[in-house]
Amino acid sequence: MLFNNFNGGLNEAGCDEAGRGSLSGPVFAAAVILPEDFRSELLNDSKKLTEKQRYQLRTLIEKEAISWAVASCDNDEIDEVNILNASILAMHRALDQLSTRPEYLIIDGNRFKPYKNITYTTIIKGDGKYLSIAAASVLAKTYRDDFLIALHEQYPEYGWCQNKGYPTAFHREAIIKYGITPFHRNSFKFTGQQLSLNFSIKSSLD
User: Fold this and answer.
1) Can you tell me the distance from the alpha carbon of 66 to that of 99, in angstroms, rounded to the nearest whole number?
2) Are 84 and 203 in contact (CB under 8 A)?
3) pLDDT of 181 higher than 80
4) How far apart are the C-alpha atoms of 196 and 190, rounded to whole Å?
């Protein structure tokens, strides 16, 4: 059972991202403010749900939320500022779009940057603990999936309709065979036995 609120009584937005570990495409983020009486037995960390469940929940979240928004940072921005900074920037962009200003923020993970002097708490595995973060994870995941599925029509060789840009064996083999596209993240390591990401953190996070 997920908790409805971290700080009871405050207008609280949950934030999460999707696509940090992908080799291609943007990182997406969502911010969601749910009513205090919101309930869902199904809602959970998007990774624990089936695709059908995620899209079912997206409809419910968009209908019931006080406010919700989705934003992204593209692969060029990721290459420029690194994936961690881009993930935080995408969250800030989602918060910018909320029609209701939150009084408190709860963020999935352990890194964030201050946003407009609004108090925040980072929560490791928060998408499995709080409904608003779980809702944000569902929106970020489904909107990113939609983007990669559409992009697959342009670049069917890479199997993005299935792997959503993540480093599956099929995707890595396609990169070796066809090279990279304008949507691949050049700062990421594409092949090799130990596929890794360039997580060099710029001094702006110090």
Assistant:
1) 9
2) no
3) yes
4) 8
